[in-house]
Amino acid sequence: MNTDSIVLYKLIILYMLDRVDFTLTNSQISDFVLTKGYTNYFTLQEAINGLIECDTPHIIKGRIVKVKNTEREEQFDQRGNHIGAEVHEVISNKMIFNVLTPNGFKALT
To answer: Which of 32, 46, 57, 86 could form a disulfide with 99 if both were Cys (CB 3.0 to 4.6 A apart)?
Structure first.
């Protein structure tokens, strides 16, 4: 099979996985690609296996979530008496990636 065709089918699979909020099974991917007539079953399985068995992981989906961290710092006078507390709240963005590896999907945070 032409390498450009396999790359195209891999891109189609990665695009499908990126566009949904749930895990697609091999049969769901196969049903879609084969129904559209893009390729045959064996070539599609070659593309899927190529993604799974690749030494380099593939980033399937990345997203940014807000993370709120609160720190409380107790304050004491020179005698050790509690005089109050300072509360620091930091809101930041955190990136999370779902990656396809030979061992399945992994979430990187």
So the answer is: 57
Q: Which of 98, 97, 95, 94 is nearest to 23 (CA)?
A: 98
Give the span between the Cα atoms of 20 and 62, in whole angstroms: 12
pLDDT at 41: 93
Which residue(s) pair with 44 in the sheet? Answer: none
Mean pLDDT by runs of 10 across the 109 residues of the chain is 79 81 84 92 88 65 73 88 86 70 64
How remote is the C-alpha of 67 from its chain's centroid?
Answer: 17
Q: Residue 33 has which token pair?
A: 């690609």
Task: Mark out the alpha helices in the chain (DSSP H runs).
Answer: 3-19, 26-36, 41-52
In whole angstroms, give the CA distance from residue 67 to residue 59. Answer: 22
Pick from 74, 58, 38: nearest CA to 106? 58
Q: 3-state class of 90 per DSSP?
A: strand
